[in-house]
Amino acid sequence: MFKPYADILAGELAYSGSSAEFKQDPVAIGAVGGSGTRVVADFLERAGIVMATPMNKSLDAMEWPPMDKILAPELLSRFPREQLLSNAFNGLERLLLLRQMNLDRLGRGGWKVPGTHLWLEELADYFPALQYVHLIRNGLDMAYSPNRQQAQRWAHEVDPALETDPNREPSPAATLEYWLSANERAIQVGRDRLGDRFLLLRFEGLVAEPRDQIDRLMDFLGLEPSPAEREQMAATIRRPATVGRYSRFPWREHFSPAQLQRLAALGYHPAEERAP
Predict the structure, then answer these.
(1) What pTM value is reported for the model?
(2) How many whole angstroms separate alpha carbon 271 and alpha carbon 276?
(3) What pLDDT digit, counting tens, does each position of 75-100 carry?
């Protein structure tokens, strides 16, 4: 485990500040899990952002703070939540700096962790120039995805009323409820706290119009890869067979009218989103 995090778990909170010391403007990528964040992390690395490593095969930063342990009841009983999080983010900042020093690369650093959105408000406080890219994918497809770990582990961070049994697979309806609440919250926090430093990127748009969406992403970040590099990025995009998978299930029976209304408010209309 990265030493700054191990120190926190040992109750040794060395950092007493509340904002970034070295890297004020990282780029973060987050989403409800399985929404296409891997390909965006690949784009950022290609365009010159130094992504936190080591990474797993999904390009998640494996030394992202272990939030479940840092925010465990034992530590929360001894230290304020804000102090624990500022020490965790200070460790993350040091990881970004160390990565760049090891590579002898200047410029911006970043990370891809789907659950970043769960602490977006606190991250915005700590990193004053943070830019955040939030991926969103049709909630009906996500409700039938086997990738439900985020809902199982972190529903309580979004809304205590959503807390699920981490030892039991959540139902499609419970998974959709998490998707709705998590995305509603992330978009609201992003727009309120980050303003023009928040970008909402739709997975379906990325699949349908990769060049246009890559241009949006690069413009947002102020990056200028060459036309050839942009073409190479676009060439990596493939429409997965899982697009429209919800149409193979009795989705009208599984979800309430209220859920479908909230889904529509986020830009997804089931009748229009069916796979051909």
Answers:
(1) 0.92
(2) 11
(3) 999 999 999 999 999 999 999 998 88
